Amino acid sequence: MTSKTPSTKAKKSPKSSKSRRPKGATAAAPAKILLLGSGELGKEFVISAKRLGCRVIAVDRYADAPAMQVADGHEVIDMLDGAALARCVRRHRPDFIVPEIEAIRTSELLKLEQAGHSVVPSAFAAHMTMNRDAIRDLAAKELGLRTARYAYAASAQELADAVLSKGGTGLPCVVKPTMSSSGKGQSVVRTKADIAKAWRYAIDNMRGDRKVVIVEEFIDFDYEITLLTIKERAARGGGVKFVEPIGHRQERGDYQESWMPCPMKPATKRAAERMAAAVVERLAGKDGAGIFGVEFFVKGSEVIFSELSPRPHDTGMVTLRSQDLSEFDLHLRAILGLPIPEIRYHGPTASAVVLATQESDLPPRYSGVDAACAMPSVEVRLFGKPTTRPFRRMGVVLAHGATAGAARTTATAAAACIRVH
Q: 121 partner at 20 to 30 Å CA-CA among 152, 197, 237, 291?
């Protein structure tokens, strides 16, 4: 059963709607944070923020979202409505506006930042990563990073041309909406007959209002990683730091398990760090700060840029157990301008997701939690989402092991014990 945080009552707007701290300033906790998006990543971020005395207003398009259950107050608005977003900011006058999802009217964030509000890690970063086409063009064309060959399509016919024409991606290939989350709308196209189905699946599962898809060559990679990259405040030197690479496995374009350590050759790791630093520094600019989840494919010694999120990453939930400062702690420290010392790691660790199997508007119930918790080193975290749908991520299991492989075995076995009803 989920608990509901009382609604935040609207107050009279003060004469100035700007943040109480100047843009790019180093903040001393407590601070007031407006969190845009209130899923499981937002919930863990709120918990980290509350430990440092911050006040958090959690915002999402539906009530009783996970982060709302632990925040000081909440708002339910359509974040693609720029006017509603601006009114929300004027009501609360936060020190920091922290986007947690892509589906936000980022043009409004650019206006808010220009007016003096501090958007994390920057409004430019949120704007460029809202749509896969913008960030892919920046990485491939402006920064010259190695990416999969790709093209865009605004109709089923354009998609077919992008796949089958001379110089196209060819078959197999991967089709994704330019804006979505958790792998929604993503599919692998293996035959000509799959192209029209992939178009419809992508459009039916897109977020936002741009009916455009990206099609990529299929890369038969050896493994894929998330490189969590931290951009510090200018007052702290403005440099970047890295968490050790996180290995992960996906299905339907969505993360299923992640683990640390993920062994990489030193030269390959350095190549990934150089690429991550280049794109993060471009997106954050001089004053921006926060954590970025940068995804790469690795094939032999070649590192291929895949995607980027300017916020904590779902695969990074493993950091809740793998180290002393989780990705949420690191994100908060970077935002507030607090020191980030050398991270201490706790040995091989893995995470595995708990998924719903059916759609229901009723509050979910769980079985098998006792069996999972009885396993050594296992920690279960259920997110408190109020409804279910097939493949919706409802929780995560964390586990340690003598090796990363052993930790993965334990985490997946524990997750398999839990059923969502």
A: 152
How far is it, in rounded angstroms, from Cα 335 to Cα 231? 9
Query: Which ranges in 165-300 belong to alpha helices (H)?
Result: 193-204, 266-284
Known active-site residue 295: yes
| Second-level CATH architecture of 348-421 | 2-Layer Sandwich (3.30)
User: How many whole angstroms separate alpha carbon 349 and alpha carbon 243?
Assistant: 14
Reading the block at residue 129, the tokens are 């990563």
- Please compute Rg for the chain using Cα positions: 21
Instruction: Please report, for the chain, the start and end positions of each structural domain, with discontinuous segments joined by +.
Output: 32-119, 149-217, 220-346, 348-421
pLDDT score recorded for residue 132: 78
| Active-site residue, selected from the candidate residues 181, 326, 351, 412 | 181
**In this structure, is the dihedral angle defined by the CA atoms of residues 21, 25, 31 and 33, taken in order, positive or negative?**
positive
Tokens representing residue 40 in the block: 């499981």
Catalytic residue among 268, 315, 349, 410: 315
Domains 149-217 and 348-421 share a fold: no
CATH number for region 220-346: 3.30.470.20
**H helix count then E strand count, the chain:** 12, 19
Peptide bond into 364 cis (omega under 30): no
Catalytic choice (72, 78, 158, 307):
307
CATH of domain 32-119: 3.40.50.20
Q: Is 307 a catalytic residue?
A: yes
Of the listed 183, 208, 316, 384, which one is catalytic? 183
Note the pLDDT of residue 18. 53
Distances (CA, A) of 46 to 21, 59, 75, 229, 317: 20, 12, 15, 20, 14
238-269 core/surface letters (b: 16 or more CB in 10 A; e: else)? bebbbbbbbbbeeeebbbbbbbbbbebeeebb
Could you confirm whether 129 is annotated as catalytic? Answer: no
pLDDT of 179 reads 77
Class of domain 149-217: alpha beta
Identify the pLDDT of residue 9. 43
The tens digit of pLDDT for each residue in 132-167 reads 789 999 999 999 999 999 999 999 999 999 999 988
Active site residue 257: no
What is the pLDDT at residue 183? Answer: 66
In the chain, which residues have pLDDT < 50? 1-17, 22, 24-25, 27, 29
Q: What is the pLDDT of residue 37?
A: 97
113 counts as catalytic: no
